[in-house]
Amino acid sequence: MSDSASSSLGALVPSEIGDGFGRLRDELSERLSGPARRATQLLTSALPNWERPSEFADLGDAFERAHGEVQRSVDAPTLVDICRLLIAEHAICLPATLQQRRIPDDVLALYPETLRRLLSFLRNGHARNYYYPNEYFVKDLRLATGLMVPCGAQAVQLRSRIGRKSSLRLALKRPFSSHILRFLRYCELVPWFRIHIDVRCLKEFNEAGRDAALRRIASLLRRHTEVLGLVGHSWFYDPRLEDVSPHLVYLRQRPMEGGAVLLRGCASELDIMWAIVNSPNRR
Description:
The protein is mainly alpha-helical and 283 residues long. It has two domains: 144 residues, no CATH class; 121 residues, no CATH class. Helices cover 56% and strands 6% of the residues. It has a four-stranded mixed sheet. The protein is globular, with a radius of gyration of 20 Å.
């Protein structure tokens, strides 16, 4: 790691934020019983290796089993506190964690504000079901454990997959030798970065913010040459976007200008909900 990256890591968690996570950890530890405190150790030991490609909510069978074991042994408010403690403990250790992630300086520069927002949410905004597989919990856990990194308008999961059928369709559309070899070896194309949006963090979600995020992702890709590229699954890329929400056409247009390949996928009820929730026109 370069000297500049090392110095950036040193400033990753300003003292007031680090102290805030420390106080939250101590408060939760005092509130929880010994077995409940030890549950965070069980969950930590079950976390997946960061280089394992996965779907967003897939934290591995070991984590699901460990979480289920903890969930059966405590009531819901205690489980929420255990999960808050788990994230606080990992946030405190994040500078050491990121030493292994090859994160460029323009991404590291986002961490102070990102961690300040995370600390505020853990203290004041957590949901009553803030535990697996709640979307906010999974995103915060991925962030605190270095499985996902902030890029401004959107965050990036460092290791993802697109599935065998999509991999085959992509290999046929773009028959690069590296794609063919990886498909023959793994029966799919791996690994990818995957882009995510967090509705709690929409301040930079505009055209300029999206472009800045893509530039940071390009910096990440230069550091992670083993990654094939960036994938996303969203109504953002629907060809009808230009007709229905022309002010958002940049969300689809920018990737296409860069040579992106579109593959039609299935829309879940959650996908549809996010597409129409803020727009009578899209409804």
